[in-house]
Amino acid sequence: MGPKDLAKLILVSNPVSAGDKGYFVATRINLKRDRYEHSIWEIDLSSRETRALLPGPADFAPLPKGSRIAFLSRRGLGKKSRGVGLWVLERGGAPRRLAYFPLGVLDFGWSPDGLRLAVVAYRGKPEPDVKHVEGLPLWINDFGYAYNVESHLYIVDAWSGLKAQITEGWARVKHASWSPDGRYVAYTVARDSLRPYLVDLVIYDVRTKEHKTLARGLVSEHHLAWSPKSDAVAVIGHKMQRGFSSHNRVYVYWLDGTERCLTCGLDRNVVNTLNSDVRGPSYSPAVQWSGDFVYFVATVGGSAELYRADLEGKTERVIGGEGVVDEFSVEGERVLYTYMTADSPKELYVYEGGKTERLTGFNDAVKEALGFARPERFVFKASDGVEVEGWVLRPRGEGKRPWIFYIHGGPKTAYGWSFMFEFQLLASRGYAVVYTNPRGSDGYSEEFADIRCKYGERDYQDLMEAVDYVLSRFDFLDEKKIAVAGGSYGGFMTNWIITHTDRFAAAITQRSICDWISMFGTTDIGWYFVEDQICCTPWRDRERCVEKSPLFYAANAKTPTLVIHSIEDYRTWLDQGVAFYTALKLNGVEARLVLFPGESHELTRKGRPKHRVEDLRQKLEWLERHLRSA
After folding, report:
1. What is the pLDDT of residues 151-193, one digit of tens each?
2. Which end of the chain is more exposed for a tag (fewer CB within 10 A), N or C?
3. On the CB side of 156, how many CA atoms lie within 13 Å of its CA?
């Protein structure tokens, strides 16, 4: 395989079930035009016939209502525009643009009568030249400067396109949902710019135009779901029980003020946090209410599984196994969903009558042609007796193999049975790939995920003990030709590892963190994430910030290191990569710095196709130099 084989994949996403029809998005990666091309597809759920309804190349997020389909599109917009159009396709007619939102749309949904749509969209006037900043946050990763940008709830007339702004003042509205009886729109909104992670759950009475707050102080970035009787709202979020290490839970709030946690008896995070580098655009709700059950996806070990809970809090698994239910759409007892495994990219599936059927095969040919490998799972007991889960992707052939020890980001995400093109590429080139879920990872208990104030301690031990374990178990792994790699938190751990041991022959650190002091003041999540996770602020706990920063151990580093960073990464800002690279060079360590202009923290997941190919090419070249000849 080569890096350009990434463009052979079709990314299937955003399933929607509507009566006897289903809808989804198919995305092609066009290297020649350096863009992603999205099209909307329709499937007859009776005959299983599939057709391209809107061939694109810039149409996504289908939302049917009767004989019409609302969707988002970037038709006619340039590469530099953040804007998106809200379009409507009449059955048998031509699509027409209903409204335009110059800074993008976060969420949208039909009213039950089909006469209006609730839309959550950005509003503001980004300054093209000199920036005059008086507030926070300064910027948002994968968006840009956001100090004078808000997001609001709008109601859009489905015929004229007339927009009415519903929320006022400084607001960051996250998601919204119309009640089945048409009377209310529920929405989540942050009102404190210094604590933008805390949201209130509010209902807006469409008749009286009054707003009523049902809950305050939730941490939630997820969708809302109304009960069929329009008397309660389900929301996914948490209350900072363990800071940002807390598991998300499903809460239900009744209009009379009653509150109930449906998943507090399930010690798993009720969102999908499995890593994958081949996902398409999706507006699929993470929580949905059908009949007497609330449906959601939970991360369980290395899998993402569909669960449902009744109103008494009894939970049961609906769809599971060694794979990832990525998105879903529930209608009655039928579930239309996308699903991937470690050796198969996402396709569309249906679950009905207790049986599962795959509906699309967009990637069958490329899977057969490229021969994707399936990893082997392993579990070992760490030195404190806790089990740690991992996987090894074995390349073809015999004899000792060089290998890459990959560390995921987060830290509260997970590796497992999801598809990673980069891992398949490495395995096809003769490298084994080993990846684990050390302490701090998602998929296990909340206690397992909680490493606040202790980065570089138990997580570091788990990783080093994992290296020892796989070398003792898998005799094809070369004990000397090992590279360590990771991005974001995985980049932080890569930096930490090479400043605390020289057992690795090479390192690749991407969108990494090396200095918690500068991270605190530059990242879009810094002033609250660093304080919560590292337990320091530069002016109160400087010593702890320094103690947990790999930059201050750079004199110990010896490992040849490739440093990759995006110039417009506002999550782990550019200075993190540049400072660590500079420190390595000044200490005589072989290092290369590769910077990608115009890219964010999302380079490896949805960066420009040509940049993603170059990113993979640089990694292969570095590994070839330091593992093949080592």
Report:
1. 999 999 999 999 999 999 999 999 999 999 999 999 999 999 9
2. C
3. 25
Rounded Cα–Cα distance for residues 494 and 185 (Å): 45
My answer on whether 134 and 244 are in the same domain is yes
Burial degree of 429 (CB within 10 A; 0-12, 13-18, 19+): middle
Domain count, the chain: 2
Strands 35-44 and 50-54: antiparallel
Gap between the Cα atoms of 326 and 13, Å rounded:
8
23, 63, 73, 191, 318 from 114: Cα distances, Å = 18, 11, 20, 30, 31
pLDDT classification of 629: cutoffs 50, 70, 90: low
Is residue 175 within 8 A of residue 187, CB to CB? The reply is yes
Q: What distance lies between CA 628 and its chain's CA centroid?
A: 33
Q: What angle do CA 2, 372, 327 make, to 5 degrees?
A: 105
**Three-state SS letters, 469-484:** HHHHHCCCEEEEEEEE
Give 52-81 as a 3 state SS string. Answer: EEECCCEEEEEEEECCEEEEEECCCCCCCC
- 356 and 383 fall within a common domain: no
How far is it, in rounded angstroms, from Cα 414 to Cα 416? 7
Whether residue 548 sits in one domain with residue 576: yes
Claim: this prediction has a pTM higher than 0.70: yes
DSSP state of 211: E
The residue range of the domain holding 549 is 373-628
